[in-house]
Amino acid sequence: LIAKIGTEHQLKLEEMEEDFNKEIRQLNQNEKELKLSLDDINRRERRATQKLDEEVQLRIKLQEEIYKNIRSHEEEVQLRLQFESKLNGLHSLHRDLQAKYERALEDIYRLEFNSKAIKEKYELVETEVINLRSLKIEHESKINYQEERIKSLLVECEQKVRAYQNVEQKLLRA
User: Fold this and answer.
1) Which letter does DSSP use for residue 174 in this model?
2) Mean local confidence (pLDDT), 146-160
3) Which conformational region is residue 84 in: left (phi greater than 0), alpha (psi within -120 to 50 degrees), or beta?
């Protein structure tokens, strides 16, 4: 009986030991799987951390690019405003110059018209002066002729007066 109980106990012990070894093997297997799983999780975590670092770097780079684009855009807006201001100034200057040009053209046309009118008046006056000069010359020649005639008539008159005085003296003497 003791031997039977001993064998049963031995069998039970062996069975328990086998169950225990089986459990140990199972636990070792589970530990290996957990280690592999932990290694896999660590690799994933490193990859995720690396990817996160890359994403952070990319985000920082994109933020810098955005700030740079914003500054560039603001500079472009300022440059565009300056350009528009200068362009408006040039348009204003062009309008002023156009107005001055048109006034100058009007002045030129008016002066040309006045010049033509003055030229025509000058030509009329010049023709009148020429006519008056020729009339003057004609009158001067008539005056000279009349003066010569007067002189000759005076001489003739004086001769007649002398002749009359001579005849009168002869009559008075006789």
Assistant:
1) -
2) 94
3) alpha
What would the two tokens of residue 78 be?
Answer: 């300022």
pLDDT in tens, 93-146: 999 999 999 999 999 999 999 999 999 999 999 999 999 999 999 999 999 999
Question: What HEC string does the chain produce?
Answer: CHHHHHHHHHHHHHHHHHHHHHHHHHHHHHHHHHHHHHHHHHHHHHHHHHHHHHHHHHHHHHHHHHHHHHHHHHHHHHHHHHHHHHHHHHHHHHHHHHHHHHHHHHHHHHHHHHHHHHHHHHHHHHHHHHHHHHHHHHHHHHHHHHHHHHHHHHHHHHHHHHHHHHHHHHHHHC
Confidence of residue 46 (pLDDT cuts 50, 70, 90): very high
pLDDT band at 5; cut points 50, 70, 90: confident
